[in-house]
Amino acid sequence: MNTTPCDILITNIKILPAAGEKIIEDGFLATRGGTIKLMGPMASMPAALSAAKTIEGHGQLVMPGLINGHCHAAMTLFRGLADDLPLMTWLNDHIFPAEAASVNSEMVYCCSQLAAAEMILSGTTTVGDGYFLEEAAARAFCTAGLRAVAAQGIIDFPAPGVPDPSLSIEAARRYLNALPTNDLLIPALFCHSPYTCSPATLLSARELAAEYNCRLFIHVSETKNEVLEHQKLHGLRPIEHLRKLGFLAENTVCVHCVWPDSSEIAILADSGCGVITCPESNMKLGSGIAPVPAMLAAGIKTGLGTDGCASNNDLNMWGEMDSLAKIHKAVTLDPTIMPAPVVLDMATRGGAAALGLNLGTLRPGMAADMIIIDLQQPHLTPFYGPDLLIYALRGAEVRHSIIGGKLVMENRQLLNIDIKAVMAAVNRLAELHNQPLGEGDNGENDFGQDAGIKKH
Q1: Which residues are CB-neighbours of 135 under 8 A, at least 6 positions away?
Q2: Strand order of the sheet with strand 274-277?
């Protein structure tokens, strides 16, 4: 009898094909060559399927992997370093000096490995990351098997790897040219913000992103004071200013967008750009609550991110979804707003759309990016449907992770990362960081010096 080969076969499992869709109660799913080959009810599974790897899925659910649309993976080193501070105090007095003393290629690689491990362990299969020396982060993601849109940072003052800010665009071009070809790795650019990048820098970055047809990220309208200061300096609100410059386009990803007014929401929608909201970071820094319902109603491609764990303090997308759903209910006094299927869609298909990826759905022919969740838990019993995942899942229930058709976690064991070694390496870096200034400084950069950033 002729057989139908597949790489991974999952049997006797609940399947959630996409947010808001009906669960296949007793199903199978087969992958081949990085994509989903077949799926459906067990009763329809071909008898001739032959798999290199079979996963018995009784009591479990398979669903699309989560997409963390905005992260600074290397900042795991600064987790808990400076809590309970306003954004500009946090940046200018703590984070920028810490980065000046600590950031180099080894730090970015090790700390991005730790971030990748944390994300995979809690169900993230794709990350939109932005930092300096991003080639080291990209290498860490490739090692881990994590899909990534990896963006090189651009800023108008000395930064790791680019001590002369006038060379930041040239360095970004070198990054785009040098990043290795990989099915899971997509290069991108990341302008820090309109208050740390001049109009000339923003325009140059826009031109470079257009030339390479890559995503262009930017933090914008994160705090109320940022908007007020921008109006004083430029006579326009930040998003209005970005439109005037021609910065906004379909490949632009605007991060945070906590304080856009109705006209700016219309600008974002008209531009076709994506937005990533980071509710826990915005809450923790006291920045505010992004008008997500209004942005969704305007048709903006809106995804969800954790931000860096220095301002979160974890990289758990389940926590983001729970926070996003509940905070809007609280402030509007409307329990029907931001329902669970909408929030899950933002963490899957919405994030994919914002990042320019065709992900977030389990269908034959789609990329085999998925997670398998153990439903046999007290806090998931009884299981009436996937809404419970948003309000009760913690991340540790994710048993297996498949990215690009390859197992990267099996029975909660990371297959590509020695997590104990990575944690030990990051702890050593933390010990160096805690030394008095000068003892652990490698002298590679003066990050944050002469930043010229107003304390908003």
Answers
A1: 105, 152, 175, 178, 179
A2: 66-71, 124-131, 147-154, 185-191, 216-220, 252-256, 274-277, 301-304
Is there a single domain that holds both residue 324 and residue 374?
no
The CATH number of whichever domain residue 112 belongs to comes to 3.20.20.140
Say if pTM beats, i.e. exceeds, 0.90.
Answer: yes
Q: Tell me how many domains the chain contains.
A: 2
d(CA 95, CA 327): 27
Residue 386 φ then ψ, to 5°: -70, -15
CA dihedral 354, 359, 363, 365 (to 10 degrees): 120
In 3D, which of 327, 325, 315 has the Cα closest to residue 395? Answer: 315
Same domain, yes or no, for 152 and 257? yes
For the beta carbon of residue 396, count every other beta carbon within 10 angstroms. Answer: 14
Place of tokens 């930092």: 131
251-293 pLDDT, tens digit per residue, is 999 999 999 999 999 999 999 999 999 999 999 999 999 999 9
H or E stretch including 283? Answer: helix 279-284
Judge whether 450 lies within some domain.
no
| 32 and 106, same domain (yes or no) | no
Instruction: Report how far residue 331's alpha carbon sits from residue 279's, in angstroms, rounded to the nearest whole number.
Output: 13
Q: Is 26 helix (H, G, I), strand (E, B) or coil?
A: strand
Taking only the tens place, the pLDDT of each residue in 75-129 is 999 999 888 888 788 888 988 888 888 899 999 999 999 999 999 999 999 999 9
How far apart are the C-alpha atoms of 76 and 118, rounded to whole Å? 10
Domain membership of residue 376 as a residue range: 4-64+365-412
Assess whether 165 and 177 both reside in one domain: yes
Give the separation between CA 214 and CA 210, rounded to whole angstroms.
Answer: 7
What residues does 398 pair with on adjacent strands?
Answer: 373
Using CA atoms, how far apart are residues 114 and 77, in angstroms rounded to an integer? 9
